[in-house]
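> call design_seq(struct)
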């Protein structure tokens, strides 16, 4: 069952504040907010895993230098 609440926005300078009724309090300290089709979407912030971040990156099309070129193999190094 969806319950609607009417609240007044509070304008303080360039900032608007939205009082959230206690029944809608989120169990989070940080949230993400975005606008979609004229609606504001507020969701608890969920930190992305490193794998999720990597999956959003474009592939690299450059050659990496051979940093081992000119070095002795590890088996031949004497200390």
């Amino acid at each position: 069952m969806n319950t609607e609440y009417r609240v007044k926005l509070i304008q303080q300078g360039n900032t608007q504040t939205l009082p959230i009724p206690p029944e809608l309090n989120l169990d989070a300290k940080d949230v993400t907010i975005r606008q979609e089709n004229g609606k504001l979407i507020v969701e608890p912030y969920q930190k992305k895993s490193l794998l999720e971040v990597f999956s959003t990156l474009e592939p690299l099309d450059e050659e990496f230098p051979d940093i081992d070129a000119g070095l002795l193999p590890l088996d031949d190094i004497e200390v």
